[in-house]
């Protein structure tokens, strides 16, 4: 789970994605500012580019998703999903393959607030307001989705998110691990420690599922 840092504009919903020939053509073609949307951060795939707010995507969360399925020991290990290390066709194919692998592993990402609270570079609400929004989002939407999914383990992305939710997380009945936001001011070693945590949690959760 994480706190969203992007904003959606209704006009953006008219955009469609032109998928490269390297991936299955039966994938969703709509554009939304969600991590796993193939057009988010890939302006050249859209029938009309998004100029503002910039369609920069969230490469830091793709690294998180990648680390859930792959052991990361060096920065070069995430090359398959990085724009500086792949062609667009290769990168999109790798991202689609990763999403399918995550589905097999039972990994899914859920925003703590179902509505965007601010966008990167814009004014940020007071912490008390952010906390209240996260709590309302949890109580009336997120909690029910998680309870229906009955996960064995929850990774809460963001210590501030964990503080805002307090005991709400523990009441789910799943194991909870808290990791810092990927855009936090961390050393390279700390980022890699987070990657190892994601990989370890996914493996442990799958071993537990297999055992039961």
């Amino acid at each position: 789970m994480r706190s969203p840092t992007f904003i959606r504009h209704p006009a953006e919903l008219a955009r469609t994605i032109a998928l490269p020939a390297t991936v299955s053509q039966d994938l969703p073609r709509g554009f939304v500012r969600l991590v796993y949307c193939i057009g988010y951060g890939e302006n050249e795939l859209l029938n009309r580019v998004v100029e503002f707010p910039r369609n920069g995507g969230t490469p830091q969360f793709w690294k998180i998703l990648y680390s859930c399925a792959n052991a990361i020991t060096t920065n070069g290990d995430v090359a398959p999903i990085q724009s500086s290390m792949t062609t667009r066709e290769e990168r999109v194919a790798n991202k689609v393959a990763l999403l399918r692998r995550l589905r097999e592993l039972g990994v899914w990402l859920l925003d703590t607030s179902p509505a965007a609270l601010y966008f990167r570079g814009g004014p940020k609400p007071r912490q008390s307001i952010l906390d209240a929004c996260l709590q309302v989002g949890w109580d009336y939407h997120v909690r029910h989705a998680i309870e229906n999914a009955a996960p064995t383990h929850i990774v809460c992305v963001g210590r501030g998110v964990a503080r805002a939710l307090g005991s709400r997380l523990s009441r789910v009945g799943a194991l909870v691990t808290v990791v810092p936001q990927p855009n936090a001011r961390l050393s390279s070693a700390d980022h890699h420690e987070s990657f190892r945590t994601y990989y370890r949690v996914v493996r442990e959760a799958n071993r537990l599922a297999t055992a039961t």
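The CA atoms of residues 153 and 175 lie 5 Å apart. The first strand starts at residue 153 and ends at 157.
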